[in-house]
Amino acid sequence: MQEAKKNTVSAGAKTEPLPGSMEEVLLFRKIQHQFPRQFRKVFPDKLAAKSVIIIPSITLDQEILSKVSGHIHYEERLLCLLMLLRMPRTHVVYVTSMPVDPVIIDYYLHLLPGITRHHALQRLTLLSCYDASPLSLTEKILERPRLIDRIKKSIPAGNASHMACFNVTKYERTLSVKLDMPIYGCDPELFNQGNKSNSRKIFKQCGLQVPPGFEDLKNEEEIINALTDLKLNTPSLQKAVVKMNDGFSGEGNAVFSYEGIDEGSEWKQWIQENLASRLKIVAGDLSYKDFMYKFQSMGGIVEAFVEGEIKTSPSVQCRINPLGDCKVISTHDQEVGGESGQVFMGAYFPAKEDYAIEIGESGLKVAEALQKSGVMGRFAVDFISVKEPDGWKHYAIEINLRKGGTTHPYILLEFLTDGDYDYENGLYLTANRQTRYYFCSDNLRNEKYKGITPPDLIDIAMLHHLHYDGTSQEGVMFHLIGALSQYGKLGVVCIGSTPERARNFYEQTVKVLDGEC
Question: How far apart are CA 58 and CA 71, in angstroms?
Fold first, then answer.
């Protein structure tokens, strides 16, 4: 009895478990266990009374996240979920660190098919922490019990409700318990299934090709040993990649070059002496010392840098629903950039017809393996593909157990066209069976764009017809609008009836913005 008191805190008349305690973990699992019944009953019914609480918190390592320009505005990416308001009895509660400009909200509501803006606004609640600090959004919410009460009061009586999050950590679990509400996402106890080391293990279990390498590394010495063994096993190897287990968007990666290694020397000693100078860290302002400190706290891998004259970076997005059903929901060809080619810049949808079906099948194998471990929600599998004389060779690189840079573009396309991706044919078909493609980017960026406010952008878009046309089901949609004025950075989704038209919409958008500035 005494132990139970230690693991609970009083919240008024209600006793709540302490964050991270076994009582909280068990209560969270009990809440999640009830979700399949809600899913089976409510989700297929577009007229069901339900509420979705959207917590777009990017709850990742804050030091690495701080290297992403304008990262606080990435909370706007899940505004695509305002499209849920097209269901006339669905309520949405959207929580952010800082208030979102009403012009941005109006922009999204204008996209709603078959629902007036007035009707949608009656079912939308926008809440803010009024806190621009580097702390994650979910941690900010947990520091504000009155805000949590407002979230609860925003849910109409009798509505089935769940949380939609960017990723799920111990903080989202605590919030779930406080709200007494399930999360459509992966139990944080299973989050390590998607780290870099375990990704490699799962890929091997599924029979997928991975680059030569080593996982479960813990420190600088083990990195040196791994780099040495890689070179000994493949003397022609020119580069290797060092990755933190929980890095994201390439920001936890570093590329090591063997250039200049003396063939007659003791290779381990050479690597040890040259590691600091030869390791190119993707997050440019992260020092070698800080990188190694982070690596030691997270662990990670070392693997061969995949070379190829013709090389692409496709990804597969999958979803495991609360009933355990696995589905491939999209494939993309990612555009990666930065000096080391490790940073996500944008993506084409679907992936190349040469291999979209093939990587979709590989993604499904991974989904089925993860489902057996209890994983639920959206996730992505990244590949590096190299064209060889007899076809494409695909190397599975990592699993991201969260929403990502390709989640919001696909959700927008899906809601706007009422269509679906057929992974067995590698095509997206709208409700009237027309094919659609898009190019998307979170990184349309130019110093000249600084100072363009949200109303300015909407004016420019309207004057130059840079908007989505519901009649043709083609056009341009913007996101990360709030980041534009301060950071000169913008997100865009360009939908076309052919890949060429989608890319042309993007090029037209860049031309217009450059011309206006």
Answer: 9
Q: Where does CATH 3.30.470.20 sit in the chain? A: 311-516
Interval 440-457 mean pLDDT: 95
Backbone angle region of 114, left / alpha / beta, with phi > 0 → left and psi within -120 to 50 → alpha? left
CATH superfamily assigned to domain 311-516: ATP-grasp fold, B domain (3.30.470.20)
Other C-beta atoms lying within 10 Å of the C-beta of residue 32: 20
Task: Convert the pLDDT of each residue in 171-201 to its tens digit.
Answer: 999 999 999 999 999 999 998 898 999 999 9
Asked if residue 509 lies in contact with residue 492, where contact means CB atoms within 8 angstroms, the answer is yes
Q: What is the rounded distance in angstroms from the CA atom of residue 517 to the CA atom of residue 507?
A: 16
CA–CA distance, 132 with 70 (Å, rounded to integer): 11
Contact 111, 145 (CB under 8 A): no
Buried residues in 86-109 as b, exposed as e (16+ CB within 10 A): bbeebbbbbbbbeebbebbbebbb
Give the H/E segment covering residue 54: strand 50-55
State residue 78 phi and psi, 5-degree precision: -85, 5
- What pLDDT, on the 0 to 100 scale, is given for residue 6? 47
439: nearest Cα among 491, 394, 488, 369: 491
- What is the tens place of the pLDDT at every residue in 103-114? 999 999 999 988
pTM: 0.90
Q: What's the pLDDT at 7?
A: 59
Give the type of residue at 257. S
What's the CA angle centered on 169, arms 223 and 401, to 5 degrees? Answer: 65
CA 23 to chain centre: 30
